[in-house]
Design goal:
Elements (H helix, E strand, L loop, with lengths): L11 H9 L9 E2 L5 H6 L3 H4 L3 H15 L11 H6 L4 E2 L7 E2 L7 H5 L10 H17 L6 E5 L5 H5 L1 H10 L1 H25 L3 E5 L10 H16 L5 E4 L9 H6 L4 E3 L6 H8 L4 E6 L9 H15 L5 E5 L9 H14 L10
Amino acid sequence: MIAGNEKSAMTSMERVLTTLGHQEPDRVPLSLLLTIHGARELGLSIKEYFSKAEYVAEGQLRMLKKYRHDCVNPFCAAAMAVKAFGGEVIWYEAGPPNSGEPIIKTEKDILSLQVPELSDTPCLVRMLESILMLKEKVRDEVPIMGIVVSPFSLPVMQMGFSAYIELMHERPELFNRLMEVNQEFCVAWANAQIRAGATVVCYFDALLSPTITAGVHRETGFRIARNTLARINGPSAIHMATAATLPVIEDVIATGTSIIGVSIMDDLAELKASCQGRLTILGNLNGVEMRRWTPEQVEKTVKEIIAVAAPGGGFILADNGEIPWQVGEEVLTAVSDAVHKWGRYPLVFHNE
């Protein structure tokens, strides 16, 4: 204790682990999903930034210091998983890269699809090198987040959304074949990141949300998630991007994951009640709205979210997806300042 009831300062790792144990750390952990912003820190284009592992590691370390948050994340883009299968990556000046033309266009493409060798995919090798470099610098004091795209959601980029939905409904044997290949790749890629030094693997699967995939196919997605996560040799988080999570929160808990990334479409108070003591909530700043926020709006929003979701631990303040390039330093700094001001435990501001 350093003064009154104020708790002694923890490292980022201690802070996150304490809140994952559903206890109150020294303050609310802050995790900003800053990927492309590292390019700005180094004065590079986004494409050039991701061309060397050294650039990504340095960018993450600079943002860790600047924004005083509690996680580093060397992830580039979901499109890199498709590139491992032979796909194309399209780069933009002011946004994350995206995948190009679908690589699966015929039945034969699915039947001949093979699990890619990670060592043959330079973009994935660079991410592993970035994790190794970050681990050497932050050691066990700051969590390193690895990221994979789920086997269930990856086909949206591999073959296009409409074709994938048609495959689900009409060609179950081909759907199962695609899931087998994708699951083997996902497990191998996740475990490679764990071996390199990632503390946790975030399992991105927007199709698990009932706002996107309903009924039997959502059940299939959760079965795949349970089976896949069980084979990953480390803790996991599930993130459904900006899709709602509350209607499927019991399914999420049944996967055995530790963290759920939540959406602005979710009611935080209801989520907190549903997850209490069972699942840590990660969220839910509106990344799109952040582009227009003033520092005063930031402080008000952060304070309100903390008041609802942070009591008792089990909560990490974050955006609800990748923070857009257009969100500037002033807003990101204001988020950090607000967390450091209002997120200190014990939380008493709401009584002031």
